[in-house]
Structures are given as C-alpha cells and as structure tokens.
Amino acid sequence: GCVIETRGLAKEYRMGSVTVEALREATLSIETGSCVAITGPSGAGKSTLLSLLGLLDRPTRGTILFQGEDVSRHSDAVLTRLRARFIGYVFQQFHLVPVLKVLDNVLLQLEFAGVPRSRRRQMALEALEKVGMSHRANHYPRELSGGERQRVAIARAIAKRPSLLLADEPTGNLDSANGERILDLLLTLNREGTTLVVVTHDPHIAAQMQRTIQVRDGRLVSEPASVAQGRVS
Ligand code: ADP
Ligand code: ADP
C-alpha cells in the first residue's frame, strides 16, 4: 500500500498581481516502507512539495490521499491531529525547544500526538535509545553538538512511531562525518519499517535512497519511463 498518494497537485503563491506556480501537476505515490529522495535546484519547488506531503499546507489544485483518505475535506484541526499523530518532521535547523531538556522535548511531541501519559516516558526513552542519545536525556539542547541535536530531533520525530518521516535537508547544518551518521541513522530507521522522504540537494544522499524524485521548475521528473508520461508513480 501507499502512505501518501497525490494526483495533479498544484501550488500557486499569489503576491499582489504576481502568481508564482511553485508546483504543477504533481502526481506521485509514496509506498509504505520505502525511502525516497526529493532533489532539484534551489527554487524548484522541493519545500513546497514537502509541505504538501506533510499536510502543512493545502494545494491550490489536486488531491492528496493520506493513508487512503482524501485530506482536502478535513478541517485544519483534523489536519493538525493527523500531522501530530502520523507524521514526523526533521528540519535542517533542528527546531528543538531550547527551554526544555532533551527528554521533555520528546515527551512534548508524544503529548501532541495524543499518547497517554502513562506510556510517554517509556516511548521517549526508547526513541532516545534508538538514536544513541539516552545518556543526554537530562541535558538542554544548547549543551549538545549539532549532530547530537539532530539525533534528538529525530528521536522526537520517531517516538510516536509515525507512518511517515519527512526530513528537509537533515544534514544541511552538519559537517560531513556527522551528516554521514545522521544519514545512516535515517536509513536504519527505514530498514526497520519507517517510510522516509528526504529533501536534499546532495546527490550522495539521494543515491542511497530507493527512489529519487527530481523537481525542476515545479514539475516532477523521475526515471526515463515516467518522464515520458510527465508523471511519477
Ligand atoms: P525549493 O525548496 O526547491 O528551493 P520552494 O518550494 O521553496 O523551492 O519554492 C518554489 C518557488 O515558489 C520559488 O519560486 C519560490 O520563490 C516560491 N515560493 C515558495 N514559497 C513561497 C511563498 N510563501 N510565497 C511566495 N512564493 C513562494
Ligand atoms: P524550515 O526550516 O523549512 O524553514 P520551518 O521551521 O519553517 O522549517 O517549519 C515549516 C513548517 O513546519 C511550519 O509551518 C512549522 O510550524 C511546522 N513545524 C515545525 N516543526 C514542527 C513539528 N515538530 N511538528 C509539526 N510541525 C512543525
């Protein structure tokens, strides 16, 4: 099955009289358990696509099926709940809450996800264990290195066991050794069953995914067969 399927997605940004077509006719499916890279030059529409796949923004046209359900009929409140429960986000800038210790950063996401209080602590500690950060549970983000912060951000994203893990340039702020370790961690999580979508301009990262979706000028380009059809399946 597929975690997410899109048909004819388009996104336009209007700024006064100017309309930017950031994404056009994007049809794709992300299969459960797969790992997919989204690549393309700056301004191509990668972040726009990722925010639509992550249900963070609504398309101008087209449909998104998330776990088989058309999400266009859902209210913002329902979308917020779906994101909190089923989607994990990892960003270039980590976005940890600075006033909360590592463990509390993870616990907060589990609360947002609707996990009962009695189960949160164990799930948070398991996630920190998985990324090799349980020994830092009682530290503040500022006490950690960049690579450690990204590990915690990944623990926060996976603790609720999301159906989809989205990462936007997850190694963009790390040196190459730490970037490599974060990539290995993401690939390990994928092998253990987490569906992974990574936005990256790094061909080395893209090469390690099962599939690459290239975005050029708001259009999806993939393997030659799909290019001919103007779509990615
Ligand atoms: P990428 O992530 O590949 O760099 P983006 O999805 O950020 O590309 O941007 C695609 C296009 O949409 C660019 O032309 C960008 O300037 C434009 N764009 C993105 N976000 C907005 C916005 N909020 N308002 C107006 N234009 C935007
Ligand atoms: P970027 O590094 O791409 O600029 P942002 O911080 O702007 O990322 O986040 C993009 C969107 O994701 C924003 O709407 C933000 O509210 C949302 N967001 C950030 N962190 C989370 C999270 N942990 N869970 C859900 N949504 C998030």
From TrEMBL:
The keyword Nucleotide-binding applies. It comes from the Bacteria. GO terms for molecular function: ATP binding. Coiled coil: none annotated. Keywords: ATP-binding, Nucleotide-binding, Transport. InterPro entries: AAA+_ATPase, ABC_transporter-like_ATP-bd, ABC_transporter-like_CS, ABC_transpr_LolD-like, MacB-like_ATP-bd, P-loop_NTPase. It holds the Pfam family ABC_tran. Residues 4-232 form the ABC transporter domain. PANTHER family: ABC TRANSPORTER ABCH.1, IMPORT ATP-BINDING PROTEIN. This is ABC transport system ATP-binding protein. It comes from Symbiobacterium terraclitae.
